[in-house]
Amino acid sequence: MLKVYIVGAGPGDKELITVKGLKLIKEADVIVYDDLIDKDILKEAKDGAELIYVGKRKGKHSFKQEEINKILVEKAKEGKKVVRLKGGDPFIFGRGGEEILELIKNNIPYEVVPGVTSAIAVPASVGIPLTHRGIAKSVTITTGHEREGENKVDYSKFVADTLVILMGITNLEKIVKDLVKSRGKEKPIAIILKGFSKDQKVIKGTLGDILEKAKDIEPPGIIVVGKVVNILER
Predict the structure, then answer these.
(1) What number of CA atoms fall less than 13 Å from residue 146's CA on the CB side?
(2) Is 167 an active-site residue?
(3) pLDDT of res. 152
(4) Does the annotation count 1 as an active-site position?
């Protein structure tokens, strides 16, 4: 039985995958891959490699997480070299931990290959540093996706200088209303849509006007709140 490699593909640009991650893609017998990766990277797979798409978008899941776990276990038990290719980093809202727990349960060896998380890379690509001396010395990364049955997140409770919210576009109105309570209407905010794609778009404003500026937008997108949004425009 060979290892299962949990590999971070980076933030959507094939050139931002790690050297080790690319090496494993070239060697893999099976690649189980997500939606938010640069599909061109799959061209690096060897001839005959089995490519299995298990991507998830809001309301559109090709496989449930339990089914993905089962695929990894079954392919590993067949003696295949398996790469689980995940967008960004496997451990930043990537559910990599859940997949590893299933591998451990089935006594299957694994290795994690970290990836560049979109939470940092996408803001950086449009000139938004998440920290800046004298301006921002703390960062919180959170999810904007709230599942039914879970406690609702009160975004006003976060106190870091910079707040990064992943998967929050659909929940934007609630997020903004929560943040106004603690940060006021003048706090800068940026929304970066479809990062590292040809359709990438940046919308900047304040908590007071962003809902008007960002009407009718669609995911995927990353939300950044804090003074760093405009710091490099001075």
Answers:
(1) 13
(2) yes
(3) 83
(4) no
